[in-house]
Fold this sequence. Notes:
Elements: E1 15-19, H1 24-35, E2 39-43, H2 51-57, E3 61-63, E4 77-80, H3 89-97, E5 101-102, H4 104-113, E6 117-122, H5 127-140, E7 146-153, E8 158-161, E9 167-172, E10 176-178, E11 181-184, E12 193-196, H6 210-223, E13 229-233, H7 237-243, E14 249-254, E15 261-268, E16 273-279, E17 282-289, H8 294-309, H9 314-322, E18 332-337, E19 340-345, H10 350-363, E20 369-373, H11 386-393, E21 398-401, H12 418-427, E22 431-434, H13 438-445, E23 454-458, H14 466-475
Parallel strand pairs: 1-2, 1-4, 2-3, 4-5, 6-9, 6-12, 7-9, 12-13, 13-14, 14-15, 19-23, 20-21, 20-23, 21-22
Antiparallel strand pairs: 7-8, 10-11, 15-16, 16-17, 18-19
Helix pairs in contact: 1-2, 1-4, 5-8, 5-9, 6-7, 10-11, 11-12, 13-14
Amino acid sequence: MPAMNASPDNRTGKRVHLIGICGTAMASLAALLQERGYEVTGSDAAAYPPMSDFLRNRGIKIMEPYSAANLHPKPEFVVVGNAISRGNVELEEVLNSRIPMRSLPQTLHEDFLAGKEKLVVAGTHGKTTTTSMLAWMLETAQAQPSFLVGGIAENFGSSFALNPGAIFVVEGDEYDSAFFDKGPKFLHYFPDAVILTSVEFDHADIYRDLDAVKTAFKRLVNLVPQRGRIIAYDANVNVDECVARAFCQVERYGFSAGAYWRIVDLKFAPEKTSWRILKQGEPWAELEFSLAGEYNVLNATAAAALAYSYGVKVPDIAKALATFKSVKRRLEVKAQVNGITIIDDFAHHPTAISETLKALRTRYSNSRLWAICEPRSNTLRRKVFEKELAESLAIADEAIITSIFKPEAIAENERLTTAAVVSLIKAQGRNARELRDADAIVDTIAPELRSGDVVAILSNGGFGNIYEKLPQSLQSMPKAEHRA
């Protein structure tokens, strides 16, 4: 039962509670609601950075663990995160007490998107970074955009902004909305323009197969008005199918000769990446940034194309990319200890892992590359992606995989077999092993690491605080142990 919209005059002091507040999008929504004048509280099973730090820095109380007592006194309404299911003690209290409840996308649509030009960035991969780039281009051009992104955009130091400009940039997630609304979040946003980066089988917990995923994206495309625009990647047959019946202008981007926005002269250097863009075959822009990887060049090109259509000039686009600082947990350098570089990347799908490791190969071409993977997402924990996960991890010189997160949540016949992944990696001529958890990994590999190594930690969760434990362990060891 949806809560009624609150007017600006009666929000102040009224409490809103978010169940599952430490999810990236939920934490961002919490901050938006606080900005609107609500008193915001939230609860989660476990709070971990960066979103826990983000919330605490804003004075938003995080209650752990879930408890019916967290809903007293009774809030004005409750936002139920999509990870929350029946049996959660707070959700049961909401239902028993008939506290008004909403989903995240419903709240965003009703309270924040009305009256704005809505630019939605969608796709299996690259959404968060592309959304952050697009928002930064608009900000650089002084368009004062509002935005909501599933991560901390480092240029803003935030995952959201609520500004007076006409444009709202939002990351369009294809995952379901709530236990009472199993449709994709992005169908609530009614976009005026869309970037579509990729379409692959993902979220096997809610989508039956690739056709079901494509159906969701086709429905998103069908919401774009005739006056709107779609910027779509040009080298993915699934994207081709999803945009084939669009009613608006569709502009393709990529490396192919026929791309409307064509990437040429791509160059990777130790500290920067540069490329040129041809618009309909004519020179249009020369761009560079500090990020690594072909996939980030594609993301930047898509953002540039849509920003340009909303009046951002090429010099502002170039300036924005040259000053772009990326997103927390996207190829984020967490520490450099004794010549060893430790990198955190939000890994949720084999293709994302593959692109991350390829990017690190271009940036650290002479380094020994380690991949440490926690199968935590609903996708990575499933057997259907076993072969693809092994192929991705085999890009590294040394691959470590942990036991899957909460195996009991996945039916045994559908569950990833980590031993099989290790065997498949070894069959490709790479070193691979399984270690129980973060502590076992730190104890085992810290003595093996040497100066020049690059360690990519791949998880979409807290991963036993390995991001802090590994650097601490290395700092306590003599430098001589890390020399080649």
